[in-house]
Specification:
Layout lengths: L2 H19 L1 H13 L3 H14 L6 H14 L3 H14 L4 H13 L3 H14 L4 H13 L3 H14 L4 H13 L3 H14 L4 H13 L3 H14 L4 H15 L3 H14 L5 H32 L1
């Protein structure tokens, strides 16, 4: 090698080192754009990074982030292509498998999504988001027992996280495992006190188990914590009407408590109107029986 070739080689090496040294700062710039919600600019920046740093050992991260950004923009075909590129560059890296699985699920390609998410879980058994993603897709396919197993693994991967535990409880409830579901929802409340969704879910468990008084207390508590959520109001009103069929006095007492708690709720007049109908029907029933008996006596 002559001196000129040697100088050229050193120059090329210097340029390569300089270029590679800018990779972290360019990636941070793309991440900041994404954080600011400037998704198109983030995607454009990441595309440039994948071209300029095509030979960089960590360029897979740029491809993976590009895929996630495009996925957030709803450009699923482009997202899947980018994520497959990231996966190909390092097949034993879990995040691209997870992101690809979620993008495929959005496309409705559920079998492929499950395969990709399972691979992410195999590569990193403590990857909570991968287990959660797998659980969500299992729910979409109607495989609730398998969904419950995946949620349980997500809980094990991150015992302090509330959302996986709550979703695990919901699956257990759908499977009729009421005691286990109640335990999961109580665990949510231990981690996040006064979580309205968990309080409401406990009410559903108690109602399903036939513990109507306890269920009513839970629904009422949920409406106090989150009065803007209509689901708790509707469920409580429905339960009060159901109780009225066997114990009108108790139902009226619960309705009075509800009215005192939410005097301006649009559910109040509807609820009391329904209770009045039930009370009238109950009062008319003995009279109808007496009329029948009198008819028999006259005969």
């Amino acid at each position: 090698m002559n001196r000129q070739d040697r100088r050229r080689q050193l120059s090329d090496l210097s340029k390569s080192d300089a270029m590679y040294s800018s990779f972290p700062s360019d990636m941070r710039a793309a991440t900041e754009l994404h954080r600011q919600g400037r998704m198109k600019e983030a995607a454009d920046t990441l595309r440039k990074i994948t071209k300029v740093y095509a030979d960089h050992p960590d360029v897979r991260v740029a491809w993976s982030n590009l895929g996630a950004t495009l996925q957030g923009m709803g450009k699923l075909d482009d997202a899947v292509a980018a994520l497959k590129k990231a996966r190909a560059l390092k097949p034993d890296h879990p995040p691209p498998h997870h992101n690809l699985g979620m993008a495929l699920a959005q496309q409705g390609k559920l079998d492929e999504a499950i395969e990709s998410l399972q691979r992410a879980c195999e590569l990193d058994p403590n990857f909570r988001d991968a287990w959660a993603g797998l659980a969500l897709v299992r729910e979409q396919t109607g495989e609730i027992p398998l969904a419950a197993e995946a949620w349980q693994r997500a809980v094990q991967a991150d015992p302090n996280a509330v959302e996986p535990l709550f979703n695990f409880g919901n699956c257990l409830f759908r499977l009729g495992m009421l005691n286990e579901a109640a335990s999961a929802f109580q665990g949510c409340l231990a981690r996040r006190p006064n979580m309205p969704e968990a309080v409401y879910a406990l009410g559903r468990v108690h109602e399903e188990a036939g513990s109507f008084d306890t269920a009513a207390e839970a629904y009422l508590a949920a409406t106090r914590i989150a009065p803007q959520v209509g689901q708790g109001h509707a469920q409580l009103a429905g339960l009060i009407v159901h109780i009225a069929g066997s114990d009108l006095a108790k139902a009226q007492g619960l309705a009075d408590t509800y009215r005192q708690t939410h005097p301006d709720s649009p559910v109040v007049p509807q609820l009391f109107g329904r209770l009045e109908e039930i009370a009238k029907a109950a009062a008319d029933a003995p009279a109808a029986v007496e009329a029948v008996e009198e008819g028999k006596a006259d005969a």
